[in-house]
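Example complex used in Figure S2.
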Amino acid sequence: MTGGSAGRDRFRTGEQAGWWMLAPALAFSVMFALYPVIDSFVLSLYRIFLAVPDLGQTFVGWENYRDLATDPVARQAFLVTVGFVVSSTLLELLLGLGIALVIHEQFPGRGWVRATALIPWAIPTVVAYQMWRFIFNDQYGLANLFLFGDRVAEYVPWLAYPGFAWLAIVLADVWKTSSFAGLLILAGLQLIPDELYEAARIDGANTWQRFWRITLPLLRPALLLALVFRTMDAFRVFDLVFVMTQGGPGGATQVLQFYGYKALFTEGRMGYGAAISVTVFLAIFLLSLFYIRAVGSKLFEKEPA
Amino acid sequence: MADLVLHTISKSFGNVMVLDDISLRVPDGGFTILLGPSGCGKSTLLRIIAGLETQTAGEVLIDGEPVGHRSPKDRDIAMVFQTYALYPHLTVRENMAFGLKMRKEPRQLIEARIQEAAELLGLAELLGRKPKELSGGQRQRVAMGRAIVRKPKLFLFDEPLSNLDARLRTSMRVELKKLHERLGATMIYVTHDQVEAMTLGDTIVVLDRGKIRQVGSPARIYNEPSDPFVAGFIGSPPMNLLEGQLRRQGGSWCFQAGSLSLPVPAIKGPMPIEQVSRTVLGIRPEDILLAPPSLHAITVQADVEVVEDLGADQILHVMAADARLVVRVPQGQFVKLDGRVTMYFPQNRLHLFVDDRRADWA
Amino acid sequence: MTRRVLLGVGITLTVAVSLFPFLWFVITSLKTQRQVEAVPPTWLPTGGVHFYRSALVDYQLTDYILNSVVVAGSTTFLALLIGIPAAYALARLRLPGKGWILGGLLGISMFPQIAIAGPVWRILDQLGGLNTRWGLLLPYVTLTLPLVIWILASFFRELPGELEEAARVDGCSTWQTMTRVMLPLATPGIFTAGILTFIYAWNEFFFALLILTQPDKQTLPVGIALFQGEFTMPWGELAAASVLATLPLVILVLLFQRWIVSGLSAGAVKG
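Predicted assembly (938 residues):
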């Protein structure tokens, strides 16, 4: 037997074991993630009403997508989503940077402060949003108490006004997820060696200059990473809207994923809902491609091993 | 215990040839060193013997049996790794027992072997400790213990001393040598350290760029290097190697390197001159004498440029004509005379390499 | 000096902003019904634990808690059981295309739930998995696997390769090398991945809402999101239920802050 074929035999057994180890994970991923995405696309080419099973499945080609393109509610949902994603992500990055800078410092009790900062992230989404719904309550809410004290007549039903409701969900989301952004940024901060700061101090840079000249440039990969994670996550917001506003008032907070959910599961329009799903999926997919193109390569180059 | 035969082993990673047609026989009970600079393929060769790497061509035979298709566990070998690779979550005892347990050896046998090895290596007190509670030298010993308890056919060592400090390295070297004598086992040892190679091995295999350059006893490798690479690699400071041409001068021969001209004896066989592409003359720094010897010697005048004092020895860096040479002389022998010395090259200590092959003097 | 003042302000703000909404719910949960309905709101609660009793008994919170414990516990167990070997294979074995698999898994963790919701619902409908705990487990395990695998793969990758080779020389098969040598060394990673998986499953709402429509099968998030009284919103009971739902997580975070931080950054940054 020659060494070459012997080697391949042994190699194959190691590889075989590897595939067996992977098999269950792959099976789950294919069955409940990959196949459903493809199936969503197939469904989006049909007209299916769950409420009227007798109609069956009629192939309608791109009709659902044509409908979607001319659907004013969908257009509004799209705009609401984009506005939500942009504003909440930016605010979260800013706040996250602040949190990261604070919990990166050395001070007694830092572990406790870090744990506290993690609490908004750890709290179940629905609990967090019920809390914020209560804070924005027209009568018992803290928001009114803080702004108007006991001038009860001036209390505002925040979630009943489109603009305020939109602001409220942005605020609640920022509160819930800034600490996660902060953690990612903290990990970036921890990668910057202390010697750099010491060298900069010897070179005569003050705190402010050290922040602008060293921290921020070196933090760029971590900031970009946090940006990627946060945008993608904000794009698929659902729990927030479901709990706080149900998409109201007048669709002011109806994000795409919530609209899709309603089409699929309350109205039972499987085909149309699937078209919305595929659109959301494609939006996130394109966004991730854009990120990989624009910042991804830089991000992974700059990442110190 | 067993003998090992490597038959025309080659290994390439993609387009890179790491080992090229290696054939070697390691006798039963031998201590063989694979020596070479980093990247010469010595570790890869050891890993092929272990079965951790697969050769592209050729075969490994242990006790005459081809083992190329067997996994490491079925080759009956033990290996001591450069970083020791002790299992951090297991105690010293469990580390040593692990390989025997995997082979489902009876409990009493395992315990007996561990006791035996622990005594041999002075580990009896440490059996309950975890690797992180041990010093570097102790870890090293545990790694050896783990190999010993297995009583394998072959011991493989992959630079086992390179992570120790200089003093510990010296004492471990001595222990290793004793161990080999007591166990009488077949050992193969990879190192880039020529001192380790010279002191430990009974056979040294010098490798360079995937090829065997020379196989021989330490004395032979030192005294009769087979090519300029081996000549330059073994010895510290390295052998002086001068590139030049052989010329006939009247009835005798002379080696011309730049403007330095040295009369040399004739060599065995026909004397190639014009066809020769490369001729190298070598002499070890410690073979250069400052007092005329009784034997035939070439006299060379040189200017001393730098003197390094090592205590027992002095290293002189000299210029002879336009050739730069290094000389090693015992303390007190060198007398500084206007920075100029007369050196004697004993003729029987000169090494001549024609076309990268050793040429013997007639 | 200004730096210390800034830091002090930063710490105070971080702590205050992080805690106050939750603290407000804690206060509310301890109020009397009259205090809850006071306009303007009042600060000091004197109601004791009556809202907790009412939430647990009248609003069947015990059922929800039980469902959540079972679902989150089994998700964690299954995701680790499946994820550990997969992570090991992807981190340490020579498999063609494993880069693509890791990338694909990251992609799955980015999927909007809605993109798979319809088909997952249809699959479970056909399998009879709607309104069952195991039906919910299937998408949960799928969606937590990427996180588990990424965290553990980055752990496995850091372990020295010579250990594996030593194990092979000592006679371990690929499987034994993983279980006997590498697994014990990855314990911190497994622990972290487990905590994060548990938190995910404990908090997940979207699929729970879709798949569990019978109240006795629902998990805590669904119960809390759909919390309703007969005529008015029972804020006191909701606050009590919310505190109960959050308490395990607060304890996890306080105890294992360090692990969670390292796990989240391992999953994200080191990837």
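Chain A touches chain C through 102 residues (CB under 8 Å). The beta strands of chain A are 46-47, 58-59.
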